[in-house]
Amino acid sequence: MLPASSAARRVITGALGVVLLTGVTTAAYVGAVPRPAPRDPGLENFHLVDPAGRAYSIESFPHGSVLVIYFGYTTCLRACPVALDNIAEAVDSLGARGASVRPVFIDVDPERAAALSMPLFTQSFGPSFLGLTGSAEAVEQATRAFKVLAERVQFSADPTDYAMTHASPIFVMRPSDPHPVSLPATSPPAAIEAVLRDALTKEPG
After folding, report:
1. Radius of gyration for the chain, computed over Cα atoms and rounded to the nearest angstrom
2. pTM of the model
């Protein structure tokens, strides 16, 4: 029979072995979690910030999520609210599967986005909506990458006397997709829902 001290050491050693093995297994699992690889510079991407200053690009989102991206501006009176309402209804129609969808609103008018409450604007369409903007240069890079038309029309010498024009489809993609699927901005909720369901069904690349 082993002395009490030897038996205690065996118990402690065995427990440490279990802890170490568990740690190695956990580390292996964490290391195996797929993460989106950095995108090729020629692919659609953005490098913008949310109202709290947190930086986002397409690689920032979970590998298994589906993004619905729309470019607009918070002072838009018709086209943007209609498109975002339709996106919100499409996501709601997915039920529990809608939790994997992240609607992203990119404000192409950073000057007014800074003066107005973009969170209040986006949250009016649903809690999952994320509003992003950035410097004029960052916004221009994003619109160029997605081939979105956004133009500032100046009416007078007053720098605040201007209006924005824009033409943006609704983009649907997984973070790992090389290119998004684009739908007309006027697409009804059922059409958006169908594309979202298709994206959710496919395995992430």
Report:
1. 23
2. 0.79
